[in-house]
Amino acid sequence: MGEPAGIGPDVAVAAFAALKGRAGAHPLRLLGDAQIFRACGLSDSASVIPVSAPAGRKAGVPDPANAEAVIACIDEAVRMAMDGEAAAIVTAPINKAVLTRAGFEYAGHTEYLAHLTGARRAVMMLAGAGLRVVPLTIHIPLAEVPSHISKDAIVETGEIIMAALKRDFGIAKPRLAVAGLNPHAGESGTMGREETAFIVPAIEALRAKGHDVTGPLSADTMFHEAARARYDAALCMYHDQALIPLKTLAFWEGVNVTLGLPIVRTSPDHGTALDIAGTGKADAKSMIAAIELAAKMADARG
After folding, report:
1. Strands (E), the chain
2. 139 pLDDT exceeds 90?
3. Could you tell me the domains of the chain?
4. Residue 248's CB: how many other CB atoms inside 10 A?
5. Which residues of 228-244 are buried (b: 16+ CB within 10 A; e: fewer)?
6. Contact 136, 153 (CB under 8 A)
7. What span, in angstroms and rounded, lies between the C-alpha atoms of 72 and 54?
8. 3-state class of 297 per DSSP?
9. How far apart, in whole angstroms, are the C-alpha atoms of residue 209 and residue 177?
10. What pLDDT digit, counting tens, does each position of 192-244 carry?
């Protein structure tokens, strides 16, 4: 369900209808408040796993009274996936500010899912239009990015990506491209030292483990069509370095995938869009893509 006041319920119901209640061999279930889903156009309430949102829904106006229900939906979805009752979970957007005011201690879905599943580290991948990108650092100020780049962080993230490309995407011999942090990937240290100090040693360590890794690459030349054909995923150093090319190529169909979990989890690559909730203007393409990708990943895992 996600945030009841946002477009989560709108796109969940629209995607459910567009896919006719199935994704490949998998029947779909909606998890959340049945009354809210019905208000968004759902006719088949039997497909709903009910979690009541006590304040109901006022489109565009989040109510902290619903925070507990939003969290309960995530908890139940994870429980079902961990217990084998669900092949995958697809989460609609949450409103982090509302949840934080209600005492939620996590930065977002990714961190909370890692906590619930006991994962050592969860990694955010964005996928769409033949491109998969992973930002090494996510929601931190740009000025703090260099202090969060380390050889160990790059190696750990790279190994999680490579394992996921094999297990979840069925790529037998995955290829990873690693972006530099600075212009021209540091130009041999003349435009910054992060490449020589951390990124190159990390790439060498990944290669020593048998991984096919290239880089550090200049970010301004690694996302054109011919360059994208040379790798299966790109590891970028910060949020916008990864998301700008992805959203340029696949703004409406981008999917957020959480790597490193014992379960399959995807979500649409957009927020709650409170300004258009309940207006019929929300585009369900990203939710549809997230559901379809989750089903394919579940099949890849068997």
Report:
1. 22-23, 26-27, 30-32, 48-50, 89-90, 123-128, 131-135, 175-179, 212-217, 233-236, 255-259, 265-268
2. no
3. 1-122+256-302 (3.40.718.10), 130-249 (3.40.718.10)
4. 11
5. beebbbbbbbbbebbbe
6. yes
7. 12
8. helix
9. 16
10. 999 999 999 999 999 999 999 999 999 999 999 999 999 999 999 999 999 99
